[in-house]
Specification:
About 40% of the residues lie in helices and about 20% in strands. By secondary structure, it is of the alpha+beta class. The protein has a seven-stranded antiparallel beta sheet with strand order 2-6-7-1-5-4-3. A five-stranded mixed beta sheet has the order 10-9-8-11-12. The longest helix is centred in the middle third of the chain and has 33 residues, at about 235-270. The protein is globular.
Amino acid sequence: MRAYKFRVYPDEKRREETDKRLILAQQLYNKILEKTKSEYKNSRKFVVNKSSLNKYMKEAIDENKDFLKLYSQTRQDIFIRLQKAFQNFFKRCRDKAQGKKAKVGFPRFKSADRYCSITYPQSNGSFLIEKAGRSNMLRIARIGRVKIDLHREINGTVKTMTIKRDAGKYYAIFTSVNEIEIKKKEDINPVGIDLGLDPFIAMSDRTTIDKPKFVNARKRKLARWQKIVAKRKKGSRRREKAKTSLQKEWQHLNNESDDFAHKLSNKLVNLGYTSFAVEDLRIQNMVKNHNLAGSIYRASWNKFIQLLSYKAESAGLKVIKVNPRNTTKQCSVCGNIQDMPLSQKMYICTGCGLQMDRQINASINILKRATSGLEGSHAREDSVRPQKGAVVDEPRTYPAIAGEAPTFR
């Protein structure tokens, strides 16, 4: 399953129609949630399920016929989103009842800024890409025809389509399913990866790669627009314009970060490794350290692992997640566990005297846990590079020198 994102260019009328339906979808979501919340407060024995949510949706539509302007399948997607919100709520309740640290948090109402997409969950004629001369047009039920920049071919069978508004721009996101058989490769060159802040990744073959400080480059512009938004009157048009400008700055920042993650994950997959061992990180627990929370969020570790996973899977490789407990504190040679303050960059073992960069040491531990010391793995500090004369199914188009970070353009 793959997602394809394309820019669409609605004219003024189509833009108004799209915005109108985004507002209606947000209002319908909130209306159903309001009815559910009220009933839940009045009767603690009340059960939230499909039939009750469906009942409240019908009541909301009877009270406001404007909701019928939404395409029927789009209304069904709103129903599905609420279902998922309550499923996550009940899961958090169970976790807390079992003694786990979890904030329960009843599903919240969505503001207009936070409800910025509508989905057509079936390709049943509700949307269609048409050829119009040299241009491509996307026909959307209840909205009309909009120009779409179809910059790449969609492979497979299209299943769903989402219209999204982001920083004043509009996008169409298609999900498709393509049934292909991927030949699995023999796991002869595994590598361990430790994610960090500085460097971004350290690998068990002693390669380290830094991530550019994208936020630092745009810090002044972000601060400027945040001040402007804070000073302007809530609900005014000038404040909305300032918010859009601020959103554009953040969008540019996120695009830079995503571009780096895509290029890095792509190069790692093509370097000749046959599997990647990473930590199964719990980001929500890590950001409790408020001094590092902002840096951890901006590092986007989960996003990088997600991109690496699907690209590795497409190439017949594996990404193995291991328990992160004590990977930094444990000696990769003798197994001794000792305290490691965040300020200490070198691991100096009190047991065997090993001296090594703390992230390199952690990456070797991660690989050991994934491979259990298999023959030929770098878990015993063997080289993970293919030996001379070895056959590699995919060419290593981006050779890296150990200890140096590949340059990205």
